[in-house]
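Design a sequence for this backbone.
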């Protein structure tokens, strides 16, 4: 049995990971579950999967979990310290990194340090701390198997040892506002932005998908995962989300990964890799597809994508600052403090004030992240609606 730690167990990726576990009885042993505020769901998950340890990172939720938990054998820990301690104390074969945002960075680095293989959904970790992740991975030899659907697709299409990879074609649905006029985007409400046409995901990534910042973060993620430079990562808008990404080779061959818009497919591939296993989930029906379309992205209408490319090329600490600022911008938009088009404006404003430096350590990264968030808050105060 493969022993799993699932971080972000109560979220969209976490709950779908548990559905994959359900589909393979006897194959996975859920040893550790971590969630933040949703103690009710964590309790239900703990009852069903009988992990050795549960970590509740949010203090009030931890207190409620402790009150309601009736299993005396269950080890219950709190906070990020609890997550790190649990990873040290409870041996696992793989950690599913599905916390949202920069919170995922520290446990990811810890897992790599301990030599634990990663099924990594949390793209913010690679965007912010790519260089630290690379170092930790090289030291321990732990593997990172991508869960993000595009990166799982690329991972599956890349031929090991191939010397003539031309470029990565990273597909994007284009989000809910693909066909909107730019001026209408200034009026977008959180409710409108939270309706993704093809995927059902957590709130932060859904807003990122609407601004195309998500695709920008994925470009940076692809650069770190596959060591392909920015000139050879091309974003392609593909509204049907059937092709999850492609790889073009020098002989003119293009390998693509197709499938339903179902995150359980890349999650399962990461959990069972290097094996591919059958599952009972619905399959793609080509007779139901009206057609597959492809467009170049509109960088002018979606400035976040152009910004992420530029910041990725700058490298060093610039992507960490972009990520921290973006997290504040998305939260402020969801709270209706700033408008939709203020999100890329805020991120650009913060990035422009930053002088990129090499990231020396996790503590240094957190310092940079804090600076970015403080600057971003300053923008929010000045532009409050
Ligand atoms: P959700 O918002 O649905 O879930 C986030 C999870 O992280 C929850 O378990 C939440 O706990 C936990 N969490 C939130 N804040 C903190 C914190 N400060 N400290 C510790 N844990 C925290 O997000 P998704 O599942 O959609 O996304 C998770 C990650 O996967 C993101 O990085 C996203 O970019 C990436 N991803 C997601 C995809 C998707 O289809 N959903 C696709 C590709 C990548 P609680 O709910 O208990 O508060
Ligand atoms: Mg994706």
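Sequence:
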């Amino acid at each position: 049995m493969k022993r799993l730690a699932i971080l972000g167990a109560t979220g969209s990726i976490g709950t779908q990971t548990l559905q994959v576990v359900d589909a393979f009885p006897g194959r996975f042993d859920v040893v550790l579950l971590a969630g933040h505020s949703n103690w009710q769901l964590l309790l239900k998950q703990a009852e069903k999967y009988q992990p050795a340890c549960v970590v509740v990172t949010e203090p009030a939720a931890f207190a409620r979990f402790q009150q309601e938990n009736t299993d005396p054998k269950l080890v219950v820990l709190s906070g990020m310290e609890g997550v790190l301690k649990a990873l040290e104390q409870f041996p696992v074969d793989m950690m599913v990194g599905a916390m949202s945002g920069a919170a995922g960075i520290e446990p990811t680095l810890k897992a790599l340090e301990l030599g634990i293989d990663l099924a990594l959904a949390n793209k913010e970790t690679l965007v912010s701390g790519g260089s630290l992740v690379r170092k930790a991975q090289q030291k321990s030899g732990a593997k990172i198997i991508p869960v993000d659907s595009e990166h799982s697709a690329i991972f599956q299409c890349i031929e090991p040892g191939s010397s003539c990879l031309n470029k990565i074609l990273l597909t994007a649905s284009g989000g809910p506002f693909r066909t909107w006029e730019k001026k209408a985007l200034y009026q977008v409400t959180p409710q409108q932005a939270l309706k993704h046409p093809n995927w059902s995901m957590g709130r932060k990534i859904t807003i990122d998908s609407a601004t195309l910042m998500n695709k920008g973060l994925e470009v940076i993620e692809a650069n770190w995962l596959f060591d392909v430079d920015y000139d050879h990562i091309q974003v392609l808008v593909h509204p049907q989300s059937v092709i999850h990404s492609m790889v073009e080779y020098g002989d003119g061959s293009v390998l693509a990964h197709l499938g339903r818009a179902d995150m359980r497919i890349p999650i399962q591939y990461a959990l069972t890799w290097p094996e591919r296993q059958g599952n009972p989930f619905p399959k793609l029906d080509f007779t139901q597809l009206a057609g597959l379309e492809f467009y170049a992205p509109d960088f002018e209408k979606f400035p976040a994508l152009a910004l992420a490319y530029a910041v990725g090329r700058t490298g060093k600490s610039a992507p960490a600052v972009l990520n921290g600022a973006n997290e504040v911008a998305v939260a402020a938009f969801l709270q209706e403090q700033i408008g939709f088009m203020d999100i890329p404006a805020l991120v650009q404003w913060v990035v422009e004030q930053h002088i990129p430096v090499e990231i020396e350590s996790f503590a240094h990264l957190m310092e940079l992240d804090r600076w970015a968030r403080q600057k971003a808050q300053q923008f929010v105060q000045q532009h409050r609606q």
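Residues 362-383 form the longest helix (22 residues).
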